[in-house]
């Protein structure tokens, strides 16, 4: 199986064709030779090529006509024009039709290699720029100081320098893509592309083409060749979100790509080598997905070289103030203590993504004022009742801000005690207060006489 770059070289002179073939083979490419533009066009339609080296003057179809035909048919392959010293104006015309570069004859092997390398690099850069325009980037890191998030951050730092395939497991909205981006940003591949594919969001019949690309005519509607996400991520990181939603028959092709480091486009039998780091994610229990036949067992073990488990937001409510501060800072908004208390008391089935959406809505509703409980959705207030005064009256931010503040402070202390397993020194550090202040507050809220195991009550 060849993984060399296929260079299509065309010239009407037999001696020149032979020279090009020898030169390209010597430079480490796979040469494909044609006599004129029409023959080259057929080759591009059928088997494709990574680059074209074309003479300007040929019978049947010359270099300019070939460029026009490629443009019309959407064959996006870089073209280098070979021209004589007195034909530079014609070469410029070729550049306007989409040619990547031109070289003057006679040329040596080094000149040809430099031109090819430059054209291939420019072609890839064009693809990357197009991808970056189309893809929206998320946050660069994870927010949270809870022990659970500290473990996640430590895992990111541990695995980032390695090439090990990584599996991220967590509920919807917990930030699996943020973790994957964090791994990429701390890895030696950080300067290359991070390419994300949501396997659940793409129709199953289109997913194979999305991942591996296709040749022109590979299926109905494939009017031009397309590079897949594997090739696009070459040198970088490919993130496969919701990998358990990938059709089982396609999982076999994914497994082969991971094991052998090569892929084949749809409609092609030509193998292409790819150097990528794969990070996969799922919101399912992966072993349960294996038992249900949704995930191949051999693929699971190939993906699960290094696993990162993301905690749901309800298990790290102490991080909610940090997350709220982060999201509101971007909108230059503020929030009352009572509203923050309500947010911390809610279970957040949609996790961090739901929190961000709720805050975005609240910012719209509250206008230029601080977010108050009345600006939050009813289901949050219903499931997260505000603290009450001794008389049973609801303590709103307007009527009793001190009461709401005390309730929030007590809740944060209880959370810190749970996370530190009753260790007062560690709890004080989590709360960013002195141990003496913590003991005072424990006495004030009558929490000092509770055993460590029951510190959450």
Characterize the largest beta sheet: strand count, sense, and whether it forms a barrel.
Answer: 5 strands, parallel
Count of individual beta strands:
12
Coarse morphology: elongated
Average pLDDT for all residues: 84
Query: What structural class is derived from the secondary structure elements?
Result: alpha/beta
Structure notes:
By secondary structure, the protein is of the alpha/beta class. It has 19 helices and twelve strands. It has helices spanning 14-26, 37-46, 63-73, 88-96, 109-134, 147-159, 176-185, 204-212, 229-232, 248-260, 286-291, 297-303, 320-331, 337-345, 351-366, 378-383, 401-419, 424-431, 435-444; strands spanning 6-10, 30-34, 51-55, 79-83, 101-104, 166-169, 194-198, 237-241, 262-264, 271-273, 277-282, 306-309. A five-stranded parallel β-sheet has the order 2-1-3-4-5, with helices on both faces. Helix 13 (320-331) packs across helix 15, helix 14 (337-345) runs parallel beside helix 17 (401-419) and helix 18 (424-431) crosses helix 19. The termini are far apart.
In short:
By secondary structure, this protein is α/β, with parallel strands linked by helices. 46% of the residues lie in helices and 12% in strands.
């Amino acid at each position: 199986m060849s993984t060399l770059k296929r260079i299509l070289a065309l010239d009407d002179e037999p001696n020149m064709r032979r020279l090009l073939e020898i030169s390209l083979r010597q430079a480490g490419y796979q040469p494909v030779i044609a006599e004129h533009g029409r023959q080259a066009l057929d080759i591009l339609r059928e088997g494709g090529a990574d680059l074209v080296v074309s003479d300007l003057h040929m019978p049947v179809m010359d270099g300019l006509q070939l460029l026009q035909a490629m443009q019309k048919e959407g064959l996006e392959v870089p073209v280098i024009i070979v021209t004589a010293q007195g034909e530079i104006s014609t070469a410029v015309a070729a550049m306007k039709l989409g040619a990547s570069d031109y070289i003057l004859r006679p040329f040596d092997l080094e000149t040809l290699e430099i031109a090819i390398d430059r054209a291939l690099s420019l072609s890839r850069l064009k693809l990357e720029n197009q991808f970056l325009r189309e893809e929206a980037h998320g946050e660069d890191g994870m927010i949270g100081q809870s022990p659970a998030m500290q473990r996640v951050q430590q895992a990111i730092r541990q695995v980032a320098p390695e090439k090990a395939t990584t599996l991220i497991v967590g509920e919807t909205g917990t930030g699996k893509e943020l973790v994957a981006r964090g791994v990429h940003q701390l890895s030696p591949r950080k300067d290359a592309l991070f390419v994300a594919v949501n396997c659940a969001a793409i129709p199953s019949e289109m997913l194979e083409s999305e991942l591996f690309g296709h040749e022109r005519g590979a299926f109905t509607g494939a009017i031009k060749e397309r590079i897949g996400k594997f090739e696009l991520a070459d040198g970088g990181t490919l993130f496969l979100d919701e990998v358990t939603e990938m059709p089982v028959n396609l999982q076999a092709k994914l497994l082969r790509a991971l094991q052998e480091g090569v892929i084949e486009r749809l409609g092609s039998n030509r193998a292409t080598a790819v150097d990528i780091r794969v990070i996969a994610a799922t919101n399912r229990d992966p072993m349960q997905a294996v038992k249900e036949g949704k995930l191949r067992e051999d693929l699971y073990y190939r993906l699960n070289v290094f696993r990162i488990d993301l905690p749901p937001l309800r298990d790290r409510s102490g991080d909610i103030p940090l997350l709220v501060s982060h999201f509101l800072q971007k909108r230059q908004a503020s929030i009352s203590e009572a509203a923050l208390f309500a947010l911390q008391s809610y279970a957040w089935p949609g996790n961090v993504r739901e929190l961000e959406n709720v805050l975005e809505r609240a910012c719209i509703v509250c206008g230029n004022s601080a977010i108050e409980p009345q600006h939050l959705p009813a289901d949050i207030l219903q499931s997260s009742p505000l603290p009450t005064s001794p008389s049973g009256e609801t303590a709103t931010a307007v009527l009793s801000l001190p009461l709401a503040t005390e309730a929030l402070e007590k809740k944060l202390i209880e959370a810190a005690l749970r996370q530190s397993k009753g260790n007062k020194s560690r709890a004080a550090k989590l709360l960013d207060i002195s141990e003496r202040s913590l003991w005072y507050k424990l006495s004030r809220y009558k929490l000092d006489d509770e055993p460590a195991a029951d510190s959450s009550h």
